[in-house]
Amino acid sequence: MEYRRIKDQDKDVNPATEDLESLRGKAILDGPAPYDKTKWKMKSMVTLALTFLTSSQAILIVWSKRAGRYEYSVTTANFLVEALKCALSLLALGRIWRTEGVTEDNRLSTTVDEVSVYPIPAALYLVKNLLQYYIFAYVDAPGYQILKNLNIISTGVLYRIILKKKLSEIQWAAFILLCAGCTTAQLNPSSDHVLQTPFVGWIMAIIMALLSGFAGVYTEAIIKKRPSRNINVQNFWLYVFGMAFNVVAIIIQDFDAVVNKGFFHGYSLITVLMIINHALSGIAVSMVMKYADNIVKVYSTSVAMLVTAVVSVFLFNFHLSLAFFLGSTVVSVSIYLHSIGKLQR
Asked: Can you give the pTM of this predicted structure?
């Protein structure tokens, strides 16, 4: 009798215990993913850094001009940007080697197949980076930031084609709305011409947008194809090819000037700051691609447009209009819609 009573009590308890265990298991499976504070901090830091660096980039380029022209060689400046980025990557790797040792994922030696993919984005970035110097013959710093947002459309389309990532209808609408907001922010109420940019300037801006979008998405695909590979190793090989292509550009475009006047002819403090800015911007972009995605880079650039316009008021007497504030509001709404579109995708 006692044995039967104890066994009957076990029968009463076991189902409840099993239900409790199943609920615990379900809570673990269905519950929210654990909050990764470190990853969130890294993503926020690189995004804010990219926004600051991008906003000051156009200002420094315009500031480095003297009497409307560059006294220095833009190809040598671009080469130094790639060389500095390569040096920063090596310094970061050296620190990792000292603390963690050399592993399969952080060693520089790798296969030919892995390295062979880097010349394509390096060549695209070369043309895009050189064009950004010459486009300032047709636009000012705020205007450049506006036109640069054309890469939002190219990035979105290539993001879908290359990385096979679907974008919701809300996200597509946010892209279009962002372009409209950026354009509205720079409308000149006293002129019938939007931004007063010549046709050549628009063509250069469109080419830059296509090159930037393709290079950015392609580089992100390379970096995320092997996520365990240290980002500094991936950067190193990209910048090595960037240096090689810039040497070719120097020989083709500025060989005589470099031989006769010297490699650093026409350089000033602003030029040095511009080179440092470009180098750190490249590092920040790659960090965003590693820890976030290319869309974050696009929106950092969009926010940088607004910062550039405000700073240009004090440096270049840029006129803030009602259209600017309306455009800023549209940009903010588009960013909100893009975040909503991610949840509904």
From this structure: 0.74
Rounded CA gap, 219 and 302, in Å? 20
Tell me the C-alpha distance between 301 and 284, whole Å.
12
- The Cα 138–Cα 133 span in angstroms is 10
- What is the phi-psi region of residue 266: left when phi exceeds 0, alpha when psi lies from -120 to 50, beta otherwise? left
List CB contacts of 307: < 8 A, sequence separation 6 or more: 51, 52, 55
Query: Distance between CA atoms of 268 and 326, rounded to whole angstroms?
Result: 38
Q: In the structure encoding, which two tokens stand for residue 289, read together?
A: 């691609």
Question: Chunked in runs of 10, what are the mean pLDDT values of the chain (345 residues)?
Answer: 46 45 42 55 73 84 84 93 92 89 83 86 91 86 76 76 78 81 70 65 86 84 79 88 94 91 92 91 70 63 75 75 77 73 58
Q: Which ranges in 254-321 belong to alpha helices (H)?
A: 255-261, 269-291, 294-315
Task: Provide the residue ranges of all domains of the chain, joining segments of one domain with +.
Answer: 2-168+198-294
